[in-house]
Amino acid sequence: MSLIAVGTMAFDAIETPFGKTDRIIGGSATYVAYAASNFVQPIQQVSIVGYDFPEEEMNDLKKRGVELEGVEVVKDKKSFFWSGRYHLDMNSRDTLVTDLNVLADFNPVIPESYQGAEFLMLGNLAPAIQKSVIQQMKTRPKLVVMDTMNFWMEIAMPELEETLKLVDVLMVNDSEARQLSGQFSLVKAAKQIMKMGPKYLIIKKGEHGALLFHENEVFFAPALPLEDVFDPTGAGDTFAGGFMGHIAKTKDISFENMKTAIIIGSALASFCVEKFGPTRLKEITKEQIDARIQQFVDLVNFDIKLV
Amino acid sequence: MSLIAVGTMAFDAIETPFGKTDRIIGGSATYVAYAASNFVQPIQQVSIVGYDFPEEEMNDLKKRGVELEGVEVVKDKKSFFWSGRYHLDMNSRDTLVTDLNVLADFNPVIPESYQGAEFLMLGNLAPAIQKSVIQQMKTRPKLVVMDTMNFWMEIAMPELEETLKLVDVLMVNDSEARQLSGQFSLVKAAKQIMKMGPKYLIIKKGEHGALLFHENEVFFAPALPLEDVFDPTGAGDTFAGGFMGHIAKTKDISFENMKTAIIIGSALASFCVEKFGPTRLKEITKEQIDARIQQFVDLVNFDIKLV
């Protein structure tokens, strides 16, 4: 029941209206691993780092059941670095610096020991890389989920279209769904995108929650109303990790179980934004996660008797 | 178990990305009455119209159990007229024309026959007018709900603050909640506003749903994801009408029942936006309303077993 998580392990420097960090640990696969390892182990990580990625961080991940055989360490280059500044609404941000470093050469090789994994989470990367990972799997995983972003729609649309044909679930945010489909209405966008390959589409709307589409069905998961969103970095990847962690734990890929998985992903994401980087994700306990999930139940639970 | 609805009965001219109307029927009390009369009758209307307001429209309302004794007809003036243009996202709009006409002299008098009403819905009007209506009630209603807007925060804040002390539930949209409280976080805004008088606060977020706050509790109702939002005019008042209609029908002002009322309000609002003005509200049947409410149940219903 293992889960492969492909994505970046990196450094971020973040400015928000509440504060500013120097280089802290980030990367999509990092957030996915911290979130998913609450539910399922091992997580089989596929990534690339430079000489500067801390040994200590690697050990923290190993302790949580994250296998690192698929993480390439490049001895003479630095890790991927991103720096950004969030606006007051925390839904929009400006990129200040993108230093690809090791990511420029990323050409992931799936270790033999990862073969047979039932679940595959493809973090946001060049679509050709995501495709290469799918093609390296000797047995197709039960569920392949991918994230992407507007950047690839602009510079690699043909490759993105090819990769979309190979995945089960696409996760994007609302503006990416609109760009990918050319439709403003998210309902119309979803119909269009599901014609491109994915049988399921998750549209993330940040503080406004998330939508899950499948055929003619739709499910909505709210975001928890928070007093402060301290740092949204990694919230989407944490959501993905919580989602995949629950799916891999239960081995149930039905629409009904995906609903539950989205609530769990939303709960994990609500922790992520409480502190800079993955700090909060490293602290939380099972009891805290369960209590947070119960808050989601209370948040949307109502009683209707149609008479 | 009657419900008093105070507000405008007016003409609107609307431009949206989908089309354009000439003068059509509008006004907050009109939408409240069309929505609430699905659940409770009579609705006791308090408003003011000019010589140009159609007799036919008055008759349509009467047929739905709307009492018009509290609607003043001014023989030598025109009805209130508003014209606006919506942007593509349908969450923002520009006002093109505001002709107050009869509304400049609106000084509502509650008819003797309305005394004893248990529920009072105060549509968006000058806070001093809203206050005067509350003070005219010889027995305080069980629940007083008011709507307001940023305009009054800018030009009549002291009167607004006085009126807020007299109501149970305030309904505003997210930007109004932020302006009224001076807080960006809606959770913080809600805490601040509930110190100003209302024990309950409903924050309407348009396509992103609505939040209900009370003490330390919060409930979230989604908006139904729609293929097209044709015309959002009146959606907020329709929401209020559905909410109040359910509360007045059930006579239950508990937090639990308010959750249900918000779902019903959201369902009615989802019809409102499907056609220009109140057109769709006049057509819908009980079966269609029940089916729509069931869609809300399906939209948010999920199964969590914490193990």
Keywords:
homodimer, 307 residues, alpha/beta, UDP-N-acetylmuramoyl-L-alanine:D-glutamate ligase, nine-stranded mixed beta sheet, five-stranded mixed beta sheet, 11 helices, 37% helix, globular, Sugar kinase (chains A, B)
Which structural class is indicated by helix and strand composition of chain A? alpha/beta
Biggest interface between protein chains, with counts per chain? A-B, 40 and 40 residues
Number of domains of chain A: 1
Any low-confidence stretches of chain A, pLDDT <50, length ≥5?
none
- Could you name the CATH homologous superfamily of chain A? Ribokinase
Number of helices of chain A: 11
Distance between the termini of chain A: 46 Å
User: Roughly how much helix do the residues of chain A carry, as a percent range?
Assistant: 25-40%
Q: Biggest sheet of chain A: strands, sense, closure?
A: 9 strands, mixed
Classified by CATH, the class of chain A is Alpha Beta
Mean pLDDT of chain A: 95
Query: What order do the helices and strands of chain A follow?
Result: EEEEHEHEEEEHEHHEHHEEEHHHH
- Taken from the alpha-carbon principal axes, the silhouette of chain A is globular
Oligomer classification: homodimer
Report on this structure.
The structure is a homodimer of 307-residue chains. Chain A has 307 residues and is of the alpha/beta class. Chain A has a single domain (3-300), classed as Ribokinase (UDP-N-acetylmuramoyl-L-alanine:D-glutamate ligase, 3-Layer(aba) Sandwich), CATH 3.40.1190. The first copy, chain A, has helices at 28-36, 55-63, 127-136, 150-155, 157-164, 174-181, 186-194, 235-250, 255-272, 279-283, 286-300; strands at 3-6, 10-16, 19-20, 24-26, 43-49, 66-73, 81-86, 93-99, 119-122, 143-147, 169-173, 200-204, 210-214, 217-221. In chain A, strands 6-5-1-9-10-11-12-13-14 form a 9-stranded mixed sheet, with helices on both faces. In chain A, strands 2, 3, 4, 7 and 8 form a 5-stranded mixed sheet that branches. In chain A, a hairpin with a 6-residue loop joins strand 7 (81-86) and strand 8 (93-99). Chain A starts with a strand and ends in a 7-residue tail after the last helix. The model of chain A has no long low-confidence stretch (mean pLDDT 95). The interface between A and B is large, with 40 and 40 residues.
